[in-house]
Write a structure and sequence with these properties.
The complex is a heterodimer of chains A (about 400) and B (about 260). With about 400 residues, chain A is of the alpha/beta class. In chain A, about 45% of the residues lie in helices and about 15% in strands. Chain A is built from 17 helices and 14 strands. Chain A has a 6-stranded mixed sheet, with helices on both faces. In chain A, α5 runs parallel beside α6 and α5 crosses α10. Chain A is globular and about 65 Å long. A 9-stranded parallel sheet of chain B has the order 5-4-3-2-1-9-8-7-6. Chain B is globular, with a radius of gyration of 17 Å. The model of chain B has no long low-confidence stretch (mean pLDDT about 95). The chains are: A alpha/beta (about 400), B alpha/beta (about 260). The interface between A and B is large, with 38 and 44 residues. Chain B: One of its GO terms (molecular function) is tryptophan synthase activity. Chain B: Its EC number is 4.2.1.20.
């Protein structure tokens, strides 16, 4: 139906089988298939239920604190213009999703999914987490709705994200450290899937990024699209026009797809997704689009870091939230269609951008959006002064101060 | 008649034994399974992210990959097994990504050339059959489907539509090697499945001992044992074949005689 209405739309994916072009799909074990189909059915119903929409919006407004502000980063803009040719140096604006309750964009999606869980009569919540932001957001909504919650987290991430582990525990969640594999996000997701398959009757799996089996990539995107919808309205109101460029960091890609999706059919708005280049694209990194190839993992077909036999290769990034060898399937499709451009930033570039934002704007960003800021630093100087860049500041950096101190050689 | 049809056409229920390729002395372990009386061999293709497997098979995957087991090595194991045991069916079990990575047509061709009789791809449900299934069936390789306690009557026809070789009933909603379902519920499920298909039904997940295997064999066409064998390989390494042969023989005795004692 959508196709007739918008023959050239980038916004009518996925198809009814959950495919974004050749990507996406439902690559799960048979035990999970019936549940995935039930979730899809329930999500279709919820989308057209005004009561669901009303409750979602009420929680976003009064619990999460939306709309998040749109902020003109004047000092950063001026700083970047210093190195630019005359007439160059775009205006940098930030969508301040780090000001949400729990400190990142992750909560938008968790609110939506827990409402679905309740609609489906599920009484137990599980989640995976990397940096811990999604785990904290899940533990938060589970506490808000009084449901028991188990969060799977790689043992290595448990170690490097202690503050978030303690937050989750304060919120009443049980944090299970996963020692399998490299003990990071990918392994936490494996373990969450193993839990789910054994507890399908009563358990809802709140996936944290726009990946996994259909309908997750679609519903996570829809819940996160509040970011782009607000940004679109705010930019039109404040600048009188649409932005020239949107920039967002990408691990799985939920904050990026949330910002991008409402603009996909605005042909003059360019978009830039920023993957984690770790130590460099020729060394250890987590840039699935730049350094990977299509394959199947965690329920969907998408770009993956893998070897010549299709074995998954561990990602590396200083940011635990970007340290994942895959990416949401819609990004794989947007890359192949050419609608969105993808680039990457190294650990070092992200650290520099982190410090730059601290000093110029008095904002301590998370290491994830620091990758987006690093890309802004590169491109803003090449764009005219009247150009408008809007980057998603998807998380705050409190959780990262220990990692940053360590990287800078500072002992706390 | 295919090797699988012959194995399930024997006068007794079939014992299906799983081990992971590249874990321990795999060639000798496979020989031990045959010598012990296994009717069908399931050879696990190691994968970095075995999402449907419990701790025993996860560790086996890591051990195999740690030793550098490649897809080429899996097919070497399969084709040399075929030379030594021309009549014993061998199926590959694993995850989609290593199977499709070089192209499903390449994989299907390798299976056919190596004498692989069937493939169980854990994370490719009927909905995604197009990714792999048609290539395998065109190459004469069976696409063995999983049915589970959550596969309801409405969904079953879709599962059966692309199922060939045999049907693998996963007796518990969960991962491999942990808990076991009650025999009564298995009996009910198997008769439900058999009402919809002429394919033999083998039952697995959580079957560890000859007693359990014998009880299930009373109500099914085959019984799959995996984790218990894989644990022996993990514990005994190079000395595993003798232990594996011993357990297989006990399992085979229980499975093969199950319907006699029931009568």
């Amino acid at each position: 139906m959508n196709e007739t209405a918008h023959p050239n739309s980038f916004r009518n994916q996925p198809d009814e089988r959950g495919h974004f072009g050749q990507f996406g799909g439902r690559y799960v074990s048979e035990t999970l298939m019936p549940l995935i189909l039930e979730l899809e059915k329930e999500y279709v119903k919820a989308k057209s239920d005004p009561a669901f929409k009303e409750e979602f919006e009420d929680l976003l407004a009064n619990y999460v604190g939306r709309p998040s502000p749109l902020y003109y980063a004047e000092r950063l803009t001026e700083e970047l213009r210093k190195g630019a040719s005359e007439g160059m140096g775009a205006q940098v604006w930030f969508k301040r999703d780090e000001l949400n309750h729990t400190g990142a964009h992750k909560i938008n999606n968790c609110v939506g999914q827990i409402l679905l869980a309740i609609r489906m009569g599920k009484t137990r919540i599980i989640a995976e987490t990397g940096a811990g932001q999604h785990g904290v957001a899940t533990a938060t909504v589970a506490a808000r709705f009084g449901l028991p919650c188990v969060v799977y987290m790689g043992a290595k991430d448990v170690e490097r994200q202690q503050p978030n582990v303690f937050r989750m525990r304060l919120l009443g969640a049980e944090v299970k450290a996963v020692k399998a594999g490299a003990a990071t996000l990918k392994d936490a997701m494996n373990e969450a899937l193993r839990d789910w398959v054994a507890n399908v009757h009563d358990t809802f799996y709140i996936i944290g990024t726009a990946a996994g089996p259909h309908p997750y990539p679609e519903l996570v995107r829809d819940f996160q699209s509040v970011i782009g919808k607000e940004a679109r309205e705010q930019l039109l109101e404040r600048t009188g026009r649409l932005p020239d460029l949107l920039v967002a960091a990408i691990g799985g890609g939920s904050n990026a797809i949330g910002l991008f999706h409402p603009f996909l059919d605005d042909p003059d708005v360019k978009m830039l997704g920023v993957e984690a280049a770790g130590h460099g694209l020729d060394k250890d990194h987590a840039a699935s689009l730049a350094g990977g190839s299509p394959g199947v993992l965690h329920g969907n077909k998408t770009y993956l870091l893998q070897d010549e036999d299709g074995q998954i290769v561990e990602g590396h990034s200083i940011s635990a939230g970007l340290d994942y060898p895959g990416i949401g399937p819609e990004h794989s499709w947007l890359k192949e269609t050419g609608r969105v451009e993808y680039t990457s930033a190294t650990d070092k570039e992200a650290l520099d951008a982190f410090q730059l934002l601290c000093r110029t704007e008095g904002i301590i960003p998370a290491l994830e959006p620091s990758h987006a800021i690093a890309a802004v630093v590169k491109v803003a100087r090449e764009m005219p002064r009247d150009a408008v860049i809007c980057a998603n500041l998807c998380g705050r950096g409190d959780k990262d101060i220990f990692t940053v101190a360590d990287a800078l050689g500072v002992e706390l | 008649m295919s090797r699988l049809a012959k194995a399930f056409g024997k006068p007794h229920p079939a014992l299906v034994c799983f081990v992971t390729a590249g874990d321990g002395p795999t060639d000798a372990v496979l020989d031990a399974l045959v010598e012990g009386g296994a009717d069908v061999i399931e050879l696990g293709m190691p994968f970095t992210d075995p999402m449907a497997d419990g701790p025993a098979i996860q560790l086996a995957n890591l051990r195999a990959l740690g030793k550098g087991t490649t897809t080429a090595e899996v097919f070497r194991i399969a084709s040399t097994f075929r030379e030594r045991h021309p009549e014993v069916p061998l199926v590959l079990m694993g995850y989609a990504n290593p199977m499709i990575h070089r192209g499903a047509d390449w994989f299907a061709d390798q299976c056919a050339k190596s004498g692989v009789d069937g493939v169980i791809c854990v994370d490719t449900p009927p909905e995604e059959d197009a990714e792999l299934g048609p290539f395998l069936r065109d190459a004469g390789v069976a696409t063995i489907r999983l049915a589970t306690p959550t596969t309801d009557a409405a969904r079953l026809p879709q599962v059966l539509e692309t199922a060939t070789g045999f049907l693998y009933y996963v007796s518990v909603a969960g991962i491999t090697g942990l808990q076991q379902a009650a025999t009564a519920s298995i009996e009910e499920a198997v008769s439900r499945l058999k009402a919809g298909t002429d394919l033999p039904v083998a039952v697995g997940f959580g079957v560890r001992t000859p007693e359990q295997a014998g009880a299930i064999a009373k109500v099914a066409d085959g019984v799959v044992v995996g984790s218990a064998l894989v644990e022996l390989v993990g514990q005994h390494g190079d000395d595993a074949p003798a232990k594996v042969r011993e357990l297989t023989a006990a399992l085979a005795h229980a499975v093969h005689s199950a319907k006699e004692t029931a009568a």
